[in-house]
Amino acid sequence: MDSEKGLPLHRNLDRVPRNVRPVQKAGKTFVLLASLLTLLYCYAEFASLSYGHHHQTITVPLHAQETLVKCRALNTRPGASTNERSQSDRFQPGTNPIVIRNASIWTGLDNGLDVLQADLFLDKGLIKSVGEIDLTILAKDRTKEITVIDAHGAWLTPGIVDVHSHIAVDAAPALSGASDANSMKGLTLPWLRSVDGLNTHDDSYAHSIAGGVTTSLILPGSADAIGGQAFTIKLRSTQERSSSSLLVEPPFGLNGSDVDLEVPPRWRHMKHACARSYSGTRMDTVWSYREAYNRARQVKNSQDEYCSKALAGDWTGLGSFPENFQWEALVDVLRGKVKVHTHCYEAVDFDAFVRLSNEFQFPVAAFHHAHEAYLVSDVLKKAYEHPPAVAMFAAFSRYKREAYRHSEFAPRLLHDDGIKVIMKSDHPAIQSRYLLHEAQQAHYYGLPENVALASVISTAAEVLGLDHRLGYIKEDVVLWDSHPLALGATPLQVIIDGIPQISSPHASIKPASLQSSPTTPDFEKEAADAIKYEGLPPLEPSRTVTDLVIFYNVSSVWTREAGTVQAAFGVQEGEPKGVVVVDNGRIVCANVLEAACASYMLSGSAQVDLQGGSLAPALVAAGSAIGLQDIAGEPSTTDGTVYDAMKSIPSVVGGDSSIIKAIDGLQYGSRDALIAHHSGVTTAITAPTSDGLLGGLSAHFSLGSAHRLQQGAVINDVASVHVKIRHVGEPSVSTQIAALRRLLLEPQGGERGEWLKQVTKGEIPLVVDVKSADIIATLLVLKRDVEAASGTPIKMTLFRAAEAHLLAKEIAEANVGVIVTPPRSFPYTWEGRRILLGPPVTEETVVSVLTSHNVTVGIGPQGVEEEEPMAGWAVRNLKWDAAWVSIGSHGEISKAQALAMASTNIETLLGVQVNPIDGDIVATSGGDLLSFEGKVVAIVSPRRGLVDIL
Ligand SMILES: *[C@@H]1O[C@H](CO)[C@@H](O)[C@H](O)[C@H]1NC(C)=O
Ligand SMILES: *[C@@H]1O[C@H](CO)[C@@H](O)[C@H](O)[C@H]1NC(C)=O
Ligand SMILES: *[C@@H]1O[C@H](CO)[C@@H](O)[C@H](O)[C@H]1NC(C)=O
Ligand SMILES: *[C@@H]1O[C@H](CO)[C@@H](O)[C@H](O)[C@H]1NC(C)=O
């Protein structure tokens, strides 16, 4: 049918138009009118028709019926189909029904407070019933086998939903052909769609599922003001193996098929990014929004005008419905049919975007990242229609100026202000496998348990407009080895669309102590200070004591003993607690019996009730840039990068005989440093930042000092010599090895030569930043060659070492130590892709394999993505990274060993000797350093001769 051509029609103009007007609201009139028009339209196809008293000839186009349906659906808000489902649209035929017996089910209902002890029956990709399930009845009229999983009371939650992921558009391992997140073809690109770049071979799928993530919103990147449309996927692989088959409720018509306008549309999603995009200023970005939305508004207005005439029967000269293929998605934003996701950081950005939402009258689903949102919740509340949810990180911050005022208390502060809180990954920035850990941290810092769980499950599903099927006990579930908010919670099984995802799970239910939500510390004052000081609360100790301090009500004490960590005492729950007396920054008495220390407990001393807490050696940060930068992305706040030894170095620096010392560039008192100190990491060993082979000499320094000249601020001017071998194209790996070999076998004169001679004499470690097992093998050969030439064993430490488990035996035999960073592996790049996933996918991790081969293992902070150098923000979480190593090892690695991996082993591996009695000690109240119950309340510093009471 030629939709452009019309046919003349006579009709009664008095009656019809009056009925037409209320069409958007009055449902019944609407239906009546529709039938009437249908009737008229049918006649119109073959005849001129006249009736009524006033005759007039007008033209109705052939597409009138279609157009009127479209017009009536123009502003229909998306919604879920109300049809009861007997089978999921994603059901994979042949999938067996599953019964999960005896689970502790967090349902998401009742504001996240509802928990059931029950069985669960899954069939046809849906959860069919929850309660007491009688297998004999189920088995009766079924031919299919029913898989029965006995949960033994384990926790079960709906699958985790990540509202901010770049899985598949920023695929791992990172290769140029695997990065489809950012288009550079313009500032506003609402016509781009992440679905067009969904790589089905991303290694991340398996990782994220291993963390219980079942669904993710895949957003384009943030290089553009409007980066394009986002799509929700489930992470399991499908039989079709296609990108489209991953989608959950994609917008109708995505594949060009006809859209049924009689049913509500499905939600669409659009990515925006505030602040300075890849070109221009904030002013340019906001103008680009306004320009884009103005164009969309023009299209929308012409459509509305068209429809009001069409619906009024006034077809004269109307032509066809005005469409604009490029701007249609933004028109849908203006019609409230799109969830707007806006990556926005600072007050100025929220303010601008909220103004935009009101100027163009569209609601904002969520502000993402939103580091300063907690400071401006009133601004958020002014957004059009409803306040946006806020999707954020727990601790990842200060990577750029906009994230400088981040607060770990933001989730609870925003929740207190009535804003919906979501934790998100920005995978692969934070690996979505550990998205639950983001919620755990938010909980640790004060977000209530029910809200913390909802933040990555039900609230997330709701903000995606998918809570009719996700985020509750409806489709996908995860069975956990502990309470989901307990540190190290790991899935026992993950079921997506009724299909178990972990083929032979290496995980088992953890002890009872981890089966309830942790009792987290009181951070009321800290949270209030975050607001009071606009994200920059003072971090100096509240009091410094140089004489006696008595810590009482102490449950456990770990101490440094000859390069390792030992439990000094530990009392059980319910037993009387011990006491520790410190004088002049040194422990003078520690005993489970208070009386044993009575002679030290003079009056007038400071007394600290640890409430069943603990003392433990302070941790040591290795391998990050902490101490050399305030804001990673702002060169003017960092030490900068050393000259590449592979290129010519100015003679004024010393040319080929130069070597750079980190100590000369240290910046004390950065927020990362002070926060790390507050978190029990009191010293760091940091090497100069380098893009090339030779980094230089690392320094060991205090993170709590104000400047280099304070007592105890520097522990060792020089710790180790640092080099890095990487696949960078040019120079080749073999060239880098050749250079390293020459540096070690033929050390030249000058300062560089002197330090390299110390390496060959075994006096100072050579630390090699390396990932690939092949390069590690070559380094072991090189070590042998150097030792053969010098006749002396050299000290070699591997740093990062993603693939080290492949050579654990050889590394052990070569007497080489390893600082595994990140401790929980991820295949960021090709040269580090052969990693061990760890539980529940593999029994072992790189840490456990090396440990079982008696390799000296240290761990660095988990960090983010492929930051080189790794930024300092993650150092604060080193205690939890260490705890995870122990908790995940099924008893193979004790807490003392895990503490050593993050303290004494680091010192050994990086060539610093700390007399055990000189090492800092961390006092925690409520629980130990490696727990979600503990809070760091004091730092005992023998070197500085004092106790910092925080
Ligand atoms: C559920 O599991 C717990 C822990 O194993 C057990 O104590 C309890 O008896 C089980 N309940 C049922 C109904 O099987
Ligand atoms: C296009 O998508 C619709 C659902 O939106 C589906 O019913 C139809 O089969 C799809 N067509 C093709 C060719 O994939
Ligand atoms: C010791 O700590 C517990 C909390 O673990 C607290 O209830 C108790 O009052 C404390 N005891 C003393 C003597 O302060
Ligand atoms: C590691 O050391 C322990 C105790 O020293 C020893 O029993 C074990 O055989 C060693 N393991 C390996 C793989 O060398």
From TrEMBL:
Which BP terms from GO are recorded?
Answer: purine nucleobase catabolic process
Q: Which InterPro entries match?
A: DHOase/Allantoinase_Hydrolase, Metal-dep_hydrolase_composite, Metal_Hydrolase
Q: What is this protein called?
A: Amidohydrolase-related domain-containing protein
- Single annotated GO MF: allantoinase activity
Q: Species name for this entry?
A: Serpula lacrymans var. lacrymans (strain S7.3)
For this record, an example GO cellular component is: cytoplasm
* Signal peptide limits: none
Taxonomic placement: Eukaryota, Fungi, Dikarya, Basidiomycota, Agaricomycotina
